[in-house]
Amino acid sequence: MTFIRKNLATLPAWDPAILWYARGIAVMQQRSLDDPTSWRWQAAVHGFGPGNLEPGDPVIPPTAEEDYLSQCQHGSWYFLPWHRGYLSAFERIVRAAIASIGTPEATAAAQVWALPYWDMAQPAWRLIRAEFRTPTLPDGADNPLFVTERRAGFETSGDVGIAANGVSLDQMLLVPDFTGSSSGGGNGFGGAATDFHHNPGPAGALEAQLHNYIHGRVGGAGGFMSDFDHAGLDPLFWLHHCNVDRVWEVWLARNTAHRNPNVAKWLTGPVDQKFTVFDETSQPWPFNSGQMVDPLAAPLDYSYEDISDPLGGTATPANLKAFAESATAPTGLKAMFGKRRQIEVLGANAPGVTLGSGRNRANLAFAAPRKTGAPGLKGLLGAKPKAERLLLNLENITGTQRGLSYAVYVNLPDDGNPATADRHFVGMLNLFGVERASQPDGDHGGNGLSVVYDVTDLVREDGRTLAKAGSLAVDFVPEDADTPDDAAHVGRISLVRETA
Amino acid sequence: MSEALAALLRWPVLAALLAWLGLAASPGLAGLPTLCGSLLGSGLAAANPELLLALNPPGAILLAAALMTAAMMLPLQLGALGHIANRALRHGWLAQALFAASFTTVWIALLVPLTLLAWLAELALPEALRLAIGLVLVVLWQERPAKRRALGRCHARPPLGATPAALLRDALVFGAAMARWCAQASGPAMLLCLLIGGLPAMLAIALLLGYENFVSGRPIRLSRLVARRWFGPQLNFDTNAAM
To answer: Do B234 and A440 lie within an 8 Å CB cutoff?
Structure first.
């Protein structure tokens, strides 16, 4: 049977999809931490640390912790498939929890219940719904959908300051390739090729933008959602990730050139540690990316109410087509000597910029491209690139403050006109995970976050291939007026030209 | 397969292959020490330090340490070297060379005392005991949080300067820092390598270090291997404890 995941925003108040979600969670919350179908275990699968333990908790054996907890994949091309498997197991566990209530109503509800998704397409949809801000259920019982650990002020109107340009899908849906680069090239829709990667890193467009932004906006400086280890304790987390998963389907459906990776490393990896979560029967359920590509296949068994294209079929820009995953990959000797892509750093600002409470600017001079030929051997033989994109790389972003986001602009004039600002807006810099990524003793040496924006249209003159030197001004404007000084630091800003 | 072959064409891998060839050919090269070789373990050399030094002049020790670094450690720096190459506006090759030079220099400075330590162990301890001590040292170190932290630092990719001078300076510093963390992460394993001696041991340890660096990202730990082998993935925790 295919379960239908519906749009949370269009459901009536206390729709069964919401009410039974609450009741299912209530059942799970009664279970002990060491029960893998418990609410806290499910959150711990995403992230787990000493801060997650409460007095009287059972001991989790270290090997079980290593194998099953703190598994979330971020800064990786496994971000989307891992979260899909995680979400599916959770959905089945909630469904079983609803059924376990045992009443005829619960049994009937469990037959059709599926996670709703939290779409942000319209302004009213960006408010946290009343059901998630009310301490009690309609029958007067405690409401497990209500948690206080969210951005301050959410209780009254549900407004946590989610801005339209923070949740816009326009840019990410135009990204032609799934697999990103960790070396300065495009970040792809799905992220860079990695092995098991439970830490922030160079994230794909969907993760870096919509995903990270909502984590930060809902969680704020001290809430659950802005912290890896606690995010899953907010019921909104699951509905947000359901929407992220839906956008993956939207991206695939809107253009036949958009494809998932078709390489063994993605389909069957990671090599070192396989993905395993527990299912509704408390049995380990191992999965890989290859099993996550079709939501209709068992045991996923779901589809979305709406995966229509919000861009109305807007074509992929001509300069990006050759970057698509479906572009013919070279084989044999061509793969050895004929690189598909090449990057060239045109300019960099290595002191970077400290991000504080006001508008923060960094200037960057860039040179004219020197690698004018196509990548690899064919370029040496005189061929020209088929495609070009100009990428603004923000690297080594470090900080300790959670829940921050900055609007990033290139060459923003000071005319105060919002329409002008929109034209110069390149993306939202979301610092979800920055405090973890900045720890020198972490698994990645405190590299910080990395973000890539396509700024081709803002840098090229008259839409033509870049041929001249120039300069950029990069502005960072904090989303929140109360953003502290020295909130974060961008270690290096560079303009990279990638050709294919 | 061709992509894997393409990866082998990168210069650090080629340099490592040459170093392996150099080490394999070392017994036939005049003056090369028997680093990781069988002669160190001979009773004649062990009983006579002067003979040992005569067989292993300082220059040869340095050369062997350089070859060992190039063979075992340089391939581990593919990511770091790629980081430099992909961020250099100009002089990327020179920056990589400076990184490699400072990395190798620090490693040589560390390998020399390790070699002397291995010699002392040769002189003072029976073979079985010194190998046991080396093995226990490695096993214990692999379990330590400090090992994991050092391995994490081996994946650090700092911001690199935008101007040529700043880039070259940063590459030098980066190489030395990576050598330091790499040595902290794998120093005991390198000592064990010196104690065991022989190319097969070097190769085996190099592969294990490569697995840690490129695949796992976490230390290979005996406790984890034993727990998984003997107790299975679920161990003893009751999955239905509260149901």
So the answer is: no
A66 interaction partners in chain B (CB closer than 8 Å):
224
Q: Which stretch, A57-66, A219-228, A375-384, A408-417, has highest mean pLDDT?
A: A219-228
Do residue B155 and residue A447 have CB atoms under 8 angstroms apart?
Answer: yes
| pLDDT confidence band for A378 (50 / 70 / 90) | confident
Contact B228, A63 (CB under 8 A): yes
Give this complex's ipTM: 0.88
Interchain pair B233, A276: CB under 8 A: yes
The confidence score (pLDDT) of residue B7 equals: 60
Query: A352 contacts in B (CB within 8 Å)?
Result: 159
Q: Predicted confidence band at A85 (pLDDT cuts at 50, 70, 90)?
A: very high
**Chain B neighbours among A 463-492 (CB < 8 Å)?**
491-492
What residues have CB less than 8 Å from B4, skipping those under 6 apart? Answer: none
| Three-state SS letters, A59-78 | CCCHHHHHHHCCCCCECCCC
Distance CA B161, CA A411 (A): 23
Instruction: Tell me the pLDDT band of A250, cut-offs 50, 70 and 90.
Output: very high
What is the rounded average pLDDT of the residues A463-477?
87
Helix (H) / strand (E) element for A291: namely none
Report CA dihedral (B92, B4, A252, A82) to the nearest 10 degrees. -100
The two structure tokens encoding residue B62: 């340095």
- Chain B hits for A35, CB-CB cut-off 8 Å, are 239-243
For residue A269, the model assigns a pLDDT of: 81
Q: A63 vs B233: CB contact, 8 Å cut-off?
A: yes
pLDDT surpassing 70 at residue A245: yes
Buried residues in A180-201 as b, exposed as e (16+ CB within 10 A): bbbbbbbbbbbbbbbbbbbbbb
Q: How far apart are CA A218 and CA A262, in angstroms?
A: 35
Is any Cβ of chain B less than 8 angstroms from the Cβ of A446? yes
Rounded Cα–Cα distance for residues A415 and A183 (Å): 36
- Which residues of chain B have a CB within 8 Å of the CB of A97? none
One-character DSSP codes across B69-130 = IIIIIGGGGHHHHHHHHTT-SS-HHHHHHHHHHHHHHHHHHHHHHHHHHHHHHHHHS-HHHH
For Cα atoms A64, B141, A61, give the angle at the middle one, nearest 5 degrees.
15
H-helix segments, A39-187: 39-46, 62-68, 79-100, 104-112, 154-157, 164-167, 170-174
Pairs of residues, one from chain A and one from chain B, whose beta carbons lie less than 8 Å apart? 135
pLDDT at B205 over 90: yes
Closest-CA residue of A relative to B166 is: A350
**Pairwise CB contact (< 8 Å): B242 & A34:** yes
Which range of A75-79, A141-145, B38-42 scores highest in mean pLDDT? It is A141-145
Record: contact B234-A284, CB cut-off 8 A: yes
Whole-prediction pTM: 0.91
Q: Do B156 and A492 touch (CB under 8 A)?
A: no
- C-alpha to C-alpha distance for B131 and A38, rounded to whole angstroms: 48
Distance from CA of B132 to the nearest CA of A (A): 27
The tens digit of pLDDT for each residue in A92-122 reads 999 999 999 999 999 999 999 999 999 999 9
Task: Report the residue from B156, B158, B235 with minimal CB separation from A64.
Answer: B235
- The more confidently predicted of residues B28 and A245 is A245
A286 touches chain B (CB under 8 A): no
Kindly report the nearest CA distance between residue B79 and chain A, in angstroms: 10
CA atoms within 13 A on the CB side of A205: 27
**pLDDT at residue number A417:** 78
CA–CA min distance B20, chain A (Å): 24
Residue with tokens 């509905």: A239
Is A447 in contact with B228 (Cβ distance < 8 A)? no
